[in-house]
Amino acid sequence: MGSRVIIKAAEWTLSVETAEGAPLAIFSVVCMACGEESEAADNDRLPVEVWALKHTGLNPTHRQYQPKVLSFWRVDPAPGNPYLEMEARSSVRR
């Protein structure tokens, strides 16, 4: 088994995930009256808003909704973190 390195004082940066294919957000909405949920939509809340308006049009007493927004984050080594240098070295070797 290999050795493990524990870095107690390393700094990290938390940011929005920007990898290829990762959505900025996934939107959906739940009707609070009946529990019906819209389809999820990547990066565009308009289809979800339209769904809520149509749902109320078909069910006039259903007027409250719970929006759901799912976003994605990532953590990367900050300057001064030894992992930043290790990752830079390993990408040069590839």
Description:
- There is one protein chain.
- The protein is 27% helix and 28% strand.
- It is elongated and about 60 Å long.
- The chain has 94 residues and is α+β, with helices and mostly antiparallel strands.
- The chain contains two helices and five strands; from the N terminus they run E-E-E-H-E-E-H.
- The model has no long low-confidence stretch (mean pLDDT 90).
- It has two domains: 1-19 and 73-94, no CATH class; 23-71, no CATH class.
Q: With helices defined by DSSP (H or I, 4 residues minimum), what is the helix count?
A: 2
The poorly predicted ranges are: none
Terminal residue distance: 24 Å
Mean pLDDT, to the nearest integer, reads 90
Number of domains: 2
Helical amount: 25-40%
Instruction: Describe the largest sheet.
Output: 3 strands, antiparallel
According to DSSP, the number of beta strands is: 5
Q: Provide the succession of SSEs.
A: EEEHEEH
Structural class: alpha+beta
Strand fraction band? 25-35%
Adjacency order of strands in the biggest sheet: 3-2-4
Write the layout of secondary structure elements.
Blueprint: E1 12-16, E2 25-31, E3 41-42, H1 46-58, E4 65-71, E5 73-77, H2 82-93
Jot down its keywords.
elongated, 94 residues, two-stranded antiparallel ribbon, 2 domains, alpha+beta, 2 helices
Short overview:
The chain is of the alpha+beta class and 94 residues long. The chain is 27% helix and 28% strand.
